[in-house]
From TrEMBL:
UniProt-recorded name of the protein: Uncharacterized protein
């Protein structure tokens, strides 16, 4: 009976916002039940949960058996508890069907399946320039696909349609229908194709490491999609590919191992130096080892509020009320549970390719959201200030998979007004300075959010234009016609490598956070909340 206990655990985790069924099932080892069986059972149960909850409530099964639900020792068969009330449950199922005006069980099944909404996003695939080319993949893996010029055609494609859309903003990026499974293809297994949301491709593409030359640091690299994208960009330009090194940092041991494996599979191991178990904050910005670092990619922990998924579409997990029993209803005890509020939480699964640190917002945690965002934004700001302290750095991209201004525009403005930014001469990367695809991207930053922070900060001597900064920021909106996750990215550039000269390299103070003796800014421990199976 472990299958049903484990399925119940998965459903409860998903209901509370803990990720997609796919992620919960396949990212954890130690299930007693077969993973594929667990996945099938939980997804089907979620689809039927509205009907099941209604039947259980109307039958008062939970009140009859026990106030906390059907509670039998683990060795007993749960089927026995259901069998005892088979007639009652069947009667309520018939009533539920009739209330919906459906003549047969088959009609009810079609009704339930039809309520699962089709995902509003495609499956994005980045062709890995380190191992293949877009032209080669169009002639091989995607030979049977029909090319379309409208992304909506891919999103709305039927299950038997094989369409492909070539992205107009990011090179080597394509979209296929969400139900296209390519993970069994040779190209995927050999690292030629990488599952990566379009928005997740923006940071490396905007950074354009070949423009600044020198080495690159990916500060929070695991699982590695952005890291391998950096390597692919360098390879595609043919510039300094043998001399430029990408330094990939990851402090979590498990994620470090995943990062190392992905780098090897993608063929980036000749370009990428993986620093396993390496905390970015413990790197010394003025160390000789990093004297050639010109670019840094920062994609730190965030709320994960922009993450979407595809494996359950619009499935909602419903749970039954435990209501007061009617006076004539049988009861097995004197204790009665007060009416509970009906629980119905939308499953916001983690995006296949975006294994960011996700802390989904829960309905009962809204009161804590403000403090959580404050903590995250301070961590993100410290990371930006630390990156700005690297001696030879000239370009930085900062990104989150968050929809909140507190983690996005607010952090950007505070970073620009920080002492280290002023000392080193950092400024926003203007829209007209960005690579072509990012310059053409139509969704920009929130001007009101920028203006709000500009007006509230103390550094009135620093002249910043709200409109220009908002236009320099890039946003992606979850679930809109662009087919992306919710995302934010901004670039920073440094024209004057000498800065203003008001302090030496060894005495830069990052907005009140003094450097330790070894030159690294202290980091408070930041929790990691897991990642998806394909990774960023």
């Amino acid at each position: 009976m472990s299958l049903y206990h484990e399925a119940a655990q998965i459903l409860d985790t998903a209901r509370k916002g803990g990720g997609s069924f796919k992620t919960i099932v396949f990212s954890k080892k130690g299930w007693k039940s077969d993973g594929k069986t667990l996945f099938a059972l939980t997804t089907e149960t979620a689809k039927w949960s509205e009907i099941l909850s209604e039947v259980i409530e109307k039958s008062e099964l939970l009140n009859i058996e026990k106030q906390n639900g059907i509670a039998l020792p683990a060795k007993h068969g749960l089927a026995l508890a259901i069998t005892r009330h088979k007639a009652r449950l069947q009667a309520e199922l018939t009533k539920a069907r009739l209330r919906r005006g459906l003549a047969t069980i088959e009609a009810l099944r079609i009704h339930v399946n039809g309520r699962v909404t089709k995902p509003s996003h495609p499956r994005w695939i980045r062709v890995n320039a380190l191992r293949t080319s877009l032209a080669e993949q169009l002639e091989s893996t995607f030979a049977g696909y029909r090319r379309v010029d409208d992304l909506a055609a891919v999103v709305n494609a039927g299950s038997d349609q094989r369409l492909i859309y070539l992205d107009q903003h990011v090179p080597d990026l394509v979209a296929v229908p969400a139900d296209c499974v390519l993970t069994m293809s040779t190209a995927y297994k050999e690292g030629m194709l990488l599952l990566q949301d379009k928005a997740s491709c923006f940071p490396a593409y905007l950074l354009n490491p070949s423009a600044a030359g020198g080495d690159v640091i990916d500060a929070c690299a695991a699982p590695g999609n952005k890291t391998t994208h950096l390597a692919a960009i360098l390879a595609s330009t043919g510039e300094r590919s043998n001399d430029t090194e990408i330094i990939a940092c990851e402090k979590d041991p498990t994620r470090s191992s995943v990062l190392a494996r992905m780098i090897k599979v993608a063929g980036a191991d000749r370009t990428v130096l993986v620093k396993q178990n390496q905390d970015f904050f413990r790197l010394q910005p003025d160390a000789k080892e990093f004297k050639n670092v010109r670019s840094l990619l920062l994609d730190p922990s965030c709320s994960g509020s922009g993450i979407v998924g595809r494996d359950e579409g619009g499935v909602v997990v419903h749970m039954p009320n435990t209501l007061e029993p009617k006076e004539n209803a049988p009861s097995r005890g004197k204790k009665r549970k007060r009416p509970a509020v009906s629980v119905s939480a939308k499953v916001e699964p983690t995006n296949d390719a975006e294994a960011e640190e996700a802390t989904p917002e829960l309905e009962d945690d809204k009161s804590k959201l403000g403090s959580r965002l404050a903590s995250l934004s301070e961590f993100q700001l410290r990371m930006l200030r630390h990156a700005m302290a690297f001696t030879a750095a000239r370009r930085i991209t900062y990104s989150t998979c968050s929809i909140y201004a507190e983690e996005n525009e607010h952090v950007v403005i505070k970073a620009l007004k920080s002492e280290v930014a002023v000392e080193r001469g950092w400024r926003i990367m203007k829209r007209e300075e960005q690579v072509d695809g990012m310059r053409r991207w139509h969704k920009r930053g929130d001007r009101d959010a920028v203006a709000e922070v500009l007006e509230s900060t103390d550094n009135k001597d620093i002249s910043l234009d709200a409109g220009q900064i908002a236009d320099a920021c890039i946003r992606c909106i979850k679930g809109d016609d662009d087919g992306t996750m919710g995302f934010f990215v901004a670039g920073f550039v440094r024209d004057d490598l000498q800065g203003s000269g008001r302090s030496s390299n060894n005495q830069v103070i990052a907005n009140g956070h003094s450097k330790r003796g070894n030159g690294a800014i202290e980091e408070e421990e930041e929790e990691w909340n897991g990642f998806d199976d394909d990774g960023p």
